Each structure stands twice: as structure tokens, then as C-alpha cells.
Amino acid sequence: EAGVAQSPRYKIIEKRQSVAFWCNPISGHATLYWYQQILGQGPKLLIQFQNNGVVDDSQLPKDRFSAERLKGVDSTLKIQPAKLEDSAVYLCASSMDRGHTGELFFGEGSRLTVL
Amino acid sequence: GDSVTQMEGPVTLSEEAFLTINCTYTATGYPSLFWYVQYPGEGLQLLLKATKADDKGSNKGFEATYRKETTSFHLEKGSVQVSDSAVYFCALSAYGNKLVFGAGTILRVKS
Q: Second label for B81, Cα 20 to 30 Å away, from A37, A75, A86, B59?
């Protein structure tokens, strides 16, 4: 079974530039998550989708971050304009159910460096 | 708000040593508790979980018991191997809400 796919694996940009990350979840998984993991910290949820609807985006900095999940499958996370503090690994995960009593499957992450 | 505190690493052990990684939590209600592991070059993966007090989660020789009275979920393994070298994250989920992770503990096992 194919896992969660993410791209690009690495991205270096200058502040105020824009960047986009792509995620393809495990087939059949209705719920998709984007997490931000800053060096030395645990992952922090940015946004959660159930099919193509947003369930939780309370910690998404909406002035610069946006995410969409068209057709309830692939998802894109965009940052525009980027700030130095956005340097982090962006993790995509998916699960079969909506709640967090089940197992999340994570991709390898996209590492962003903002100079 | 909900939070998870893990012991700081890195933890360095010799093969066959006993492992304990401490984890305590603060949450409203009765959360589910998890340990996730990240091996070098791989994504996070679920190691074990417990959904109610006194439950013991176990997998690959690792165990953790949900202790409500001490709000703890310490990870243990009787005999570690070099292949256990990874970053270990304790996490909780309360009322089916988002997973809250600890900062992670790096484990290094020497042969």
C-alpha cells in the first residue's frame, strides 16, 4: 500500500517569497492534516480536512497561510509571503476517521528554509 | 490548554539496556494517549496507544501504561537495540480533538 506522498522534500526561499507544498494521502483516507514542526519542537496542527471541508484551522496563520483540498483527495499548502519563522518541516498526514482515536499516517515531510 | 511534557534528550544507551522515556500530560477530561516514533529518514509512525486509564499499550517490545492518577504515559523497553535509535514523541487527543505532541526525545543506542 502506498504511503502519504509529499513534495518537494526540500525548499529554500527568501523571506517575502511564496512557496507551495503538495500532499497525496493514502487512498481512501477521508481525513487529511497539515502539521508544522519547528526544530526542537513537536508537530503542531495547522489545518484538518474531512474530505474537502475544513474541520479545524484554528492554528493556521490565515494572513499568510492557505490550504485547499480539491475533490477530497490531494491537498496544497501555500505560504505567501514567507517569514523567517516559517522555517520548519511541514508534515502531511491522513487517517481513515475524523477523530484522533485512530492512527495517523505521516509523510516524510517538506523541509522549508526561509533566508 | 492541553499539553504534553517529555524528558529532554538525547538519551544514549548501550544495546540491551533498559529504556524509560518519561511523559506527563495536562488535559481536560480523559484523553487518548499515544507514542509516535520517527526513524531516520522516515515519517512519523504510531508505536502504541492507550485510550483509557490503566490501559497498557504495547508494540515491538515497547510498553506504556496510562496512569490517570499521575497523568503519565511513560515509554519502556526491557532491552533496546541499535535499530531502536529514533525520535520518540508522546501525544494526546482529548474529546477527539487534534493531536497535541510533546517536543520529542532523541534515543541513541550504541552497539
A: A37
